[in-house]
C-alpha cells in the first residue's frame, strides 16, 4: 500500500462549502489523512471546526501552522488552501517556505503578478503545486483531451464554452431575506476578498481552463466585456468574450451567475476539421463525439477505453460518477506527484493531467485580458505571454 | 370553406431544395393552389419542372409571368419567391407592380438599401409581403414569445442564440468529389448570387430573427467578426457576435456552417429576471421554462394552452410536428392576411406573428452591422435604425 | 407527373380528429385529391362538413356513395375509412364491392373473423387495402426494420414495447365536467362502436404492430391481462402481456391510457445477439443503435443512408419531420401500390413497407389472444395462425 | 465529532469489484474506519490484500475473525459482508453471534428460509443489519418515495420497473477469450455460489426493491418466467414478470443481463391517480414528475427541498453525485443506526430509509415466487407473507 500523505487545511471551517468537498475528495481514494488545520480566521470557530472533524492539531493562525508543521518530524506534507481568493498567495508562500506541497483552490490569486510569483516559488522550491480545477478530473474530460491530442477531431477550428448559474441573480449578498445574507455570496462579491473579478474569476476561469484543457490551445487575443446586472453589486456577475487562436481557430466564452434557471451548466464544444466533441458538466458520464457529416456517438465513462479515462474512474459502466470523484481524482494525482517528487523520480504518466500553478497563471492572464478589454469598451486585446 | 388562393412560384425547379418545401407548406393546410410558375431561369428546365408538377401555366421568364398573371382574371394572387438571394428584390418588385402579394424566402435581399425599397413598395402598394423565417412558425417558438410578452420571465437580461451546421465544412462547392459540386453550395457561396454574406446571410439571419422574435428585443450595438475557414471559399462560413441591448441586456450570437457534426442546430436561450427559456429547433415539440432557482418545466407543443401555440398546431399531444408544419404555418398566416387585405378588413389576430418584409429589413441591418464591425477588426458598432 | 388519385372519405366530419389527419396526409405529397365523402352518419353534419372542405360530392350514406362512385366514370379510386371501428368492415366491403381500393384506419375490425373476411375480399378482388399503422411510416422505424433484416443486431432475443397515454385517466367519456364528455372518449370506450378491446384495440395494437414490424417476428404465445382502472368504464384502459417467440425470444408489451403524465409514449426496444435498437415515437427523428458492450450511436433521420429511410423522408438533416409526414408516407405508398395495381405491374419495392389488411388480421389475432388469456386469469395461450 | 466506527470486512480481496466500492462508501462520509478483514478464502491472497489496504488486522478465516474481534476490547463494531451470496448467511450469523452489527451485500441469502433466519437472529440479538440496496441511497429515489408517501401522485395504479445490462450477453464465465473467464461472471453464474437465481437474484432483486421502496407497495401475486439465453449457462440471465397489487394496481418487471447495448439501465416509473414519476439510475441527479395531463417537471437533486433528499446529498445544485455517494449514504445511515442502538436510543428519523434484513427477506420472497411461477410455466402465483 502506498502510504497516506499527511494533509493540512487552511480555511474550510464550519459552513464553508468547498472545504468539506476538499476533505471528501482527499479521503475518497485513501491517499491523504487530514491531521492539521487552521480552519478559520476566527480562533473559536477554528477550534470548534477542528473538534467537529476530529482533527489532531488545530491552529488559530495559518502562519503559525506553516512554521510549526514545517518543523515537526510528523508535520503535514501537503496543505489544502480553501480560503477566499485574496489569501491564496500569502498562505501558499508561507507553506512553500516551510517545504510543504500545496493544493490550492481556484482562482490561483487575485492578480497575475501574484500568480507568477507563486509559480516561480513552486519551481524554485521544487514543490508540487496543484490547482483544483475540478472539472479536469472528470474521466470524460480527460478522454476528450486525449481524443484531441490523438488527432481524432482533426485541427481545432471552433471552441464554444459556457458556464451558467443563477444563484446570484438576486442580491443575495445583502441580508435582505429572512435567512440573512448568503455567506458564499458575501465573500465572492467582495473585491477585497475575491479580487477584482467576480463571476469572471469564480466560474469564468473554470470555463476558460476547461476549454484550454480539452482543446490543448489557448487563445492569442480576445474581445470581452464584464457586466454587473444586479444593482449595487461590487463585482461583475456576467462575462462574454470572443476568442481568436493563433492557428486561426475562433471561439466564444460566456459565464454568468444571473442566468435564471441554470444550476451549474458548464458546457464545452470543440469542433475540428474532422469531428466535434461536446461535454456537459451536469451529465459528466457522457461525452458526445460526432464525425463531420456523421452520427453522434454517445461515449460513456464506463466504456471508453482510453488510458486517461481508465485511470480516472473507479466503478463499472452504468454506475455514475460525479463531482466528488472528479475532485478526488485531483487529490489522487497530486498524491502521485508528491510521492514521486519526494522520491526524486518522475511523476507517473497517468498523473500528468493534474492542473497546477501554471494553469492558474494562464487563468490570471485571461482575467487580466478580459478586464482590460472590457475597460476599453470591449476592444480586441492580445493575451501577453512571454 | 375559405377559398384556396391561387399561387405562383419563381424558382424552385428540379433539384432545388427549398422550392419543394414551399410547395408542401403551401399545400398542407389547403389554403393555396399552385397554378403557375417560372421555375427556372433555364427555359427547358422550367418547362420540365412545371410538367413534373402538373402546373397549369409555365413561364420561361418571371417578368413575363408577372405581367401576364397580373393581367389575367384568374391570375395568381400571391407569388412564392424561392430563387437565389440576388433575385429576391427584382422579382418581388415585378410582382408587386402587378398587384400580386409576395411570399419570399430569406434573406430578404442582398443589401439593406434593396430591403428598404421592398418594404416601401409593399407598404405603398398595400400588399402582403411575407418572409419565410420558418422557425417562427413553430408553435413553441410562438409560445415562447407569448411568455416573454406576458412577463413570465421578467425583464430580459441575456440572449444566447446559435445556429450550427457542418455541411460546408469541406469545399463542397467545388467539383472535387465523384458526385460533382453540391448545387446548394454553389450558389450559396457565390457572392454574385448569395450576396456579400455567406453563413451570415444564410443562417445567421435565422438566428438573429429567432432571438428578436422571442425576446421582443433587437440589439442596439454589436461587435462581430465573420470568418472563412475553408480555403478558397468566397464568402464567410462562420460568424460570431456579441450584442448589447438598449435595456442593458447582453447577448451572443454564433452561426457556423463548418461545425463538424452539427446537422441544423438552432438553439435559443433567453434569461430574464424571473425565469429562463430554452428552445432547440431539432426538438421543436419541446420548450424548457425554468424559474430562477427552480425546476425546469418541459413544456410540450401539445399541452401548452397559449393562444399562439394553439393556433399553430394541428395534432394532439405526443404526435410530433416538424419543420414542414412550421413552414405551413407561415403560409396559413399569409393566406389569412391576404384574404383580410383583399376584403379590406384587419388581419385576424392569430395571423399577426407572420414574419414580413420588416423582419427582413431588420435582418439586413444586422448583416450590414456585422460586416462593418468585422471589417473594422471586430470593433463595436451601433445598429442604425431611423 | 404521376396523376393524382381521386379519393373519397367515409367518416371524418367536423370535430373528428383522425379524419383531418388523413386529409392532410393524403394531400401532403400531392398524390391524392379528395373529391367525395360521406363524412358523417348525420346528414346535415355530413353536408356541412363537406361544404367546409370544399368537397365536390357529398353523400348522406356510405352505401349510396359506394355504389354511385363505383359507377361514375370519374368516381373515386380509393376510399379512406375513418369511422369508429365497428363500421370498418361493412364500409370496406361495400367499397371493395364497387371495385374501389381501401385505406382504413386501425384497428382493422372488431373481430378476427371480420378481419379475415376483409383480407379474403381484398385478395379476391385484387384491391389494395392499406391499414394506417402510422408509426410504421416513420423513416427511422423503417430503417430499424432494415437493420434487423440485414442482421445488424444479430438474432432477436428481446422485444420490449410500450404505449402509454393519460387522456383516459379520468372518466372523460361521461359528461362530468363543464365541457361535457370528450367525443373521442365516448366512442372509443363504447364496445358497440369500438369493439370489445378498449386501450388494447386503440393503442395496444399499435404497439404490437410496431414490435412486429421492426423485429420481423410475431410471438407464438402470450400471457396477458387487460384491466379497467376507471370505475364504470365499459372497456379496458390498460393491458400488459408477456410474449414468447418461436425462436426463443422473449418480450413484454404494455399499453395504458391511464398512465398519468404520459402524452403518447410509444417506445420500442429490440435486443439481438449483436446489438440493440431503441425508438421513441415522441422523438421520431432519432434511432438509437448500440452494439453489445459498445457505445450508443444516435442515428438521425436525415443522415441514415438506408433505402427505406431515404424513400420515406422529404427534408434535409436537422429539419425535423413528424407524425403527419409519417402518415403521409402511408398514403404515398398506397398511391404507388394503387397505380401499380391499376397498371397490372408489380408495386415499386420502396412501397412494400405499407401496412395492409394482413397486418390488421395479425393485430386482431393479438387482440383475441389477449382477451382469451385475460379471461383465463392471465394464463399462457398460443396465438393460432393457420 | 461523532466517533468513527470500527469496521471489518469479509470478502473483497484484490480483484473484487464490490469490496472496493464498500470501502470507498464506508470512508466517504468519515463514519467508519476499516481495521480488520478476512478478505479472501485464500490465505495468501487475504494477507496480500490486507497489506495492500494497510489493514491493521488480517484473518485467514472469517470464523476466527468473528470470534477474535468479538472478544477484543477494540474489536470491530460492524462487519461488511461482500462475499458471494452463499456465504452471506453463515458469515452474518457468526458475526451476529459475536455481537457485531452487519452490513451485507445483496441478495441477502440463497433461500427464503435462510433469510428469515437471519432476520430473526438480528431481531433477537438487537443488532443493526443493513442490506446494501444501493439505489435506495440516491437522494432522488428517497425524494420519490417521499412524494408517494405524501400523496403527491395519488393512489398508485401502475408500476413499471426494469434493469438491463449486457455484460453477460456472451458466455464470459467460460475462459473462451484471450483474457480468460470474467471473474465476476464465474461466481455469479455458479448456482453453488450465487444461489438458484442468476440475473433474478443479481439485479432482478434490485429492480423489485426499488419499485417497492418508491411505491411503498409490494405485489400480492405475480406471473413470471426466468430464461437463459446463453447456451450452457447454469443460471437464468433474463427474467420477466407481471405483477398484481392488493389495491388493484398492476405492474411489470423486467431484468436482463443479455440486453445488448445496455450498461446498467435501472429504470422505474410509478403512475398514480394524480401524477407519474420516472427515475433512471444512469441519470441519478434527475427525477421526473408529471401531473396528469400536465407538463413534466425535471426535479434535480440539488434543488428538491424534501427532507429525505436533503439528508442524502452533499454538494450544491448542479454538482452531480453518483453511485458511490448513494452507496455511502447507506453507510452513513447504518452508522447513525448503530450509534443509536449502542446508545439505546431511537435511530434518527433521517436514517429510517436504510434498507435492512427485512427488505432482504422480501426480496427472497420475490425470488422464490418467480422461480415457482416460472417452474409452473409462468402461471400466476401468490407471494406468501405471514
TrEMBL record, chains A, B, C, D:
Residues 6-131 form the Gfo/Idh/MocA-like oxidoreductase N-terminal domain. Residues 141-277 form the GFO/IDH/MocA-like oxidoreductase domain. It holds the Pfam family GFO_IDH_MocA_C3. Signal peptide: none annotated. This is Dehydrogenase.
Amino acid at each position: 500500500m502506498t502510504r497516506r500523505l499527511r494533509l493540512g487545511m487552511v480555511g474550510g471551517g464550519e459552513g464553508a462549502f468547498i472545504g468539506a468537498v476538499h476533505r471528501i475528495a482527499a479521503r475518497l481514494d485513501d491517499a491523504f489523512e487530514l491531521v492539521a488545520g487552521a480552519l478559520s480566521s476566527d480562533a473559536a470557530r477554528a477550534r470548534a471546526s477542528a473538534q467537529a472533524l476530529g482533527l489532531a492539531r488545530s491552529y488559530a493562525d495559518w502562519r503559525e501552522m506553516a512554521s510549526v508543521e514545517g518543523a515537526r518530524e510528523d508535520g503535514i506534507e501537503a496543505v489544502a488552501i480553501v480560503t477566499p481568493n485574496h489569501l491564496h498567495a500569502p498562505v501558499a508562500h508561507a507553506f512553500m517556505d516551510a517545504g510543504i506541497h500545496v493544493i490550492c483552490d481556484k482562482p490561483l490569486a487575485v492578480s497575475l503578478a501574484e500568480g507568477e510569483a507563486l509559480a516561480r516559488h513552486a519551481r524554485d522550491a521544487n514543490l508540487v503545486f496543484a490547482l483544483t480545477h475540478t472539472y479536469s478530473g472528470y474521466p470524460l474530460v480527460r478522454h476528450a483531451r486525449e481524443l484531441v491530442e490523438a488527432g481524432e477531431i482533426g485541427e481545432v477550428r471552433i471552441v464554444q464554452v459556457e458556464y451558467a448559474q443563477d444563484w446570484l441573480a438576486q442580491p443575495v449578498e445583502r441580508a435582505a431575506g429572512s435567512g440573512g445574507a448568503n455567506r458564499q455570496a458575501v465573500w465572492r462579491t467582495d473585491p477585497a476578498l475575491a479580487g477584482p473579478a467576480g463571476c469572471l474569476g469564480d466560474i469564468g476561469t473554470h470555463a476558460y481552463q476547461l476549454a484550454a484543457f480539452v482543446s490543448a490551445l489557448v487563445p492569442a487575443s480576445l474581445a470581452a466585456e464584464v457586466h454587473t446586472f444586479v444593482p449595487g453589486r461590487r463585482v461583475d456577475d456576467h462575462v462574454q468574450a470572443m476568442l481568436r487562436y493563433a492557428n486561426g481557430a475562433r471561439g466564444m466564452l460566456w459565464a454568468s451567475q444571473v442566468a435564471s434557471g441554470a444550476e451549474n451548466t458548464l458546457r464545452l464544444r470543440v469542433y475540428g476539421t474532422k469531428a466535434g466533441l461536446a461535454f456537459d458538466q451536469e451529465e459528466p458520464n457522457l461525452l458526445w463525439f460526432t464525425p463531420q457529416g456523421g452520427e453522434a456517438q454517445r461515449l460513456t465513462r464506463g466504456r471508453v477505453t482510453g488510458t486517461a479515462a481508465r485511470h480516472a474512474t473507479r466503478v463499472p459502466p452504468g454506475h455514475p460518477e460525479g463531482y466528488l470523484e472528479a475532485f478526488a481524482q485531483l487529490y489522487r494525482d497530486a498524491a502521485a506527484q508528491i510521492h514521486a517528487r519526494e522520491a526524486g523520480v518522475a511523476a507517473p504518466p497517468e498523473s500528468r493531467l493534474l492542473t497546477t500553478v501554471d494553469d492558474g497563471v494562464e487563468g490570471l492572464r485571461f482575467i487580466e485580458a478580459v478586464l482590460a478589454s472590457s475597460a476599453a469598451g470591449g476592444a480586441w486585446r492580445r493575451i501577453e505571454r512571454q
